[in-house]
Known about the structure:
Layout: E1 3-7, E2 10-13, E3 18-25, E4 33-38, E5 45-50, E6 57-59, E7 67-72, E8 77-82, E9 91-96, E10 118-123
Parallel strand pairs: 2-10
Antiparallel strand pairs: 1-3, 3-8, 4-5, 4-9, 5-6, 7-8, 9-10
Amino acid sequence: QVQLVESGGGLVQAGASLRLSCAISGGTGSNYRSWFRQAPGKEREFVAGISWSGGATYYADSVKGRFTISRDNDKNMVFLQMNSLNPEDTGVYYCAVPRTSSYSYKDPADFGPWGQGTQVTVSS
């Protein structure tokens, strides 16, 4: 059973940066890795994704140019560098692995199981 442990969140002011980390253990159905986030009262949404080699990356329009996803396959870890944070980035951030090899990269229903997430709070 795959297990995901996110870390690196915190309370920061607008304009600050944070780097999230995710440690993944156990067998996975896919080598693709992703980050999602969930703001209070809102549905979980796609943030960023990365292929096995790192040669292909995908970003939500709202974070493009500010966030960078990366991975260390030797350590089985995924990272999310977040710059120029704004209050709209507040939420719980989750790293994610597809349940199977067939998935829609923006649909959280195709990913799981989920870790506990890490809280990111950006004050104005």
